[in-house]
Amino acid sequence: MARIVVKFGGTSVANVERIRNAARHIKREVEAGNEVAVVVSAMSGKTNELVGWVNEASKFHDAREYDAVVASGEQVTAGLMAIVLAEMGIQSRSYAGWQVPIYTDDSHGAARIADIDPTELNERMANGWVPVITGFQGISPHNRITTLGRGGSDTSAVAVAAAVQADRCDIYTDVDGVYTTDPRIVPKAQRMTKISFEEMLEMASLGAKVLMIRAVEMAMAHKVRLTVRSSFDDPDAPQIAPDGTPGVPGTLVCDEDEIMEKQIVSGVTLAKAEAKITLRKVKDNPGVAAAIFGTLADKGIVVDMIVQNIADDGATTDITFTVPDSEYDKAVKALEDNGGRFEYARLSGSRGGAKVSVVGVGMRSHAGVAASMFKALADKGINIQLITTSEIKTSVLIDEEYAELAVRALHTYYGLDKQDA
C-alpha cells in the first residue's frame, strides 16, 4: 500500500464528464489499496473568467477580495469531485485551502506556502476517505483567503504530498509525460522514464511547460517524487511504465541518485520571443551591474542571459542580456531614463531571438558538450549570438527563424531520437 497525492489540472476537470473520468483514475488507486488525497484546479478557463469579472468590477480592486473571488473556481471543482467519488462508492470530502489548513504569507495573488497542518488529512486517509483539496489557495496570517499565483495548484499538490509524507505525487495533465523535446517540433522525441529534479528545474525554466518551476523547486527541497502522467489515458488500461514494464505510466521526476544511467544530454528546450539588448562602453565602476539590473528589476522586468565583456583598458565594459520580446520597449525606456545611476555610450538591441538549450546531469562528468553543441549548429549554418552555461545546461541565443532547425539538429546529434522511429 502506498500513500499518493494526485493532482488534476484544468483541462483534466474541464466539465463534469472530465471530472468523472478523473475520478476513475482515483478509484483505480483506491481499489489497489492505496491511500489517496486529491488536489484539483479550477475548470479550464474558469480562473480567467473570474479574473475578468474582478477587473470588470473595478480596475483598482482590493487584492484580498480578488483572492476571495478567484479562489472560488477550485472550490466548485473540489465539491463536484467529492460528489462524483461518493457516487462511485468512495468516501470523500472536499476541503478548501483554509480548511486543511494551508498556511501562507500575506502576499495576496502571489502567496507562498508557509506550513500545512496534515492532521485532518492523515486521519481521513487512515480511515479510508479520499480528501479533495482545492489547489492554488490557502489562508493568510489574518485569516483571509490567499491565492498562490501561476502554477499554484501544482505547488499545492507538492506541498500537501510533503506534509502527509506521500510516497509520490501524481500530476495528471494533458500530456503523458516529459519528453526529450517538444514532440510538435521533433516527432521522434521520446518520453523519458525518469528525469532528475535538477534537469526538470532547468527544463521548466528554459521553456518546457509541463511543470511549473515553483512546484519542482518545492519537490526538490522536500524530496517529493513526482509523476507526470495523462488524465486522458484509459483509467482501466493496464498500468505500463514508459520502458514497457508494469508500473506507473508517465515520467518520474526524482532524485538523481534514483537514476542509474545518466544521459550526457537528457533534453533539448526552446524558448522563443527573446529580445537582446546591449549597452556599449559602460563606465566600469563598482556596482554598475547592480545599478543596471536593479533599474530593470524595479520595473518588474525579468532578465535571462547575461554576457559581459571588459575593454582592454579596464575602464569600460559591454553588457549584453536578454528579456522577453514583450518587455523590450519597457526595458529600453527604463535604461534610457535611469536617472544617472550609470553611464554608457550607446544602446542597441533587437527582437526575434530564440534560446535553445541542452540539459543533462551527465554533462557534469563529460567534457566538450558545449563545443559539440556549437559544432552541430555550425554544421547547419546557424549563427550563435550569446552563450550561457551552468553545470548541467548550455544555452545559446540564435535567430528565431532557425529555432526549430536547431532543436531538430541537436536532438538528433545527441542521440535522443527514438531508435525504432
TrEMBL record:
One of its GO terms (cellular component) is cytosol. Pathway: Amino-acid biosynthesis; L-methionine biosynthesis via de novo pathway; L-homoserine from L-aspartate: step 1/3; Amino-acid biosynthesis; L-lysine biosynthesis via DAP pathway; (S)-tetrahydrodipicolinate from L-aspartate: step 1/4; Amino-acid biosynthesis; L-threonine biosynthesis; L-threonine from L-aspartate: step 1/5. Residues 277-350, 358-421 form the ACT domain. ATP binds at K7, F8, G9, G10, T173, D174, Y179, R184, K209, V210. GO terms for biological process: homoserine biosynthetic process; lysine biosynthetic process via diaminopimelate; threonine biosynthetic process. SUPFAM superfamilies: ACT-like, Carbamate kinase-like. GO terms for molecular function: aspartate kinase activity; ATP binding. It holds the Pfam family AA_kinase. InterPro entries: AceGlu_kinase-like_sf (IPR036393), ACT-like_dom_sf (IPR045865), ACT_Aspartokinase (IPR054352), ACT_dom (IPR002912), AKii-LysC-BS (IPR041740), Asp/Glu/Uridylate_kinase (IPR001048), Asp_kin_monofn (IPR005260), Asp_kinase (IPR001341). NCBIfam families: asp_kin_monofn (TIGR00656), asp_kinases (TIGR00657), PRK06635.1-2 (NF005154), PRK06635.1-4 (NF005155). Belongs to the aspartokinase family. Keywords: Amino-acid biosynthesis, ATP-binding, Kinase, Lysine biosynthesis, Nucleotide-binding, Transferase. It catalyses: L-aspartate + ATP = 4-phospho-L-aspartate + ADP. This is Aspartokinase. Substrate binds at T47, E74. Its EC number is 2.7.2.4. It comes from the Bacteria. Signal peptide: none annotated. PROSITE patterns: ACT, ASPARTOKINASE. It is an enzyme of class 2 (transferase).
